[in-house]
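Q: What would this chain look like folded?
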Amino acid sequence: QVQLVESGGGLVQAGGSLRLSCAASGSIFSINAMGWYRQTPGKQRELVATITSGGRTNYADSVKGRFTISRDNAKNSVYLQMNSLKPDDTAVYYCKQEIATSLVFLAYWGQGTQVTVSS
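A: My prediction, written as C-alpha cells:
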C-alpha cells in the first residue's frame, strides 16, 4: 500500500511565497516521474510542473520563472517552491508520483492542499 501526504498549503498575499511538499510511503520499489497539478471549482485538473527520475523538469507557461519543482529520491519526496504568487494561482494543489511496488508503475495522488492567494 502506498500513501502520499502533502503539506505546505495555506493563505498568502499576492507576491508572497509558499513551498509545497509531498512524501510517499509504503512498499515502494521505484519512483519514476513526479509532478504537481492544480484544480479550481468547475475546471479540469491542470498540470503545473513535472520532474523525471533524471531531473528533467517541465512547467506550465503560467508558472514558468515563478515556480520551481524539485525532488529528493532518498525521501521519496517532491517539492514545489512557489514565488511571486498571484490570485490566479489559487487552487487545490495535488501531487502525483509514478510508483512501482513491484514491476508495474502506477500513478498515485496526494489528498490535495489548498493554496489561496489574496490580492
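The two ends are 41 Å apart (CA to CA).
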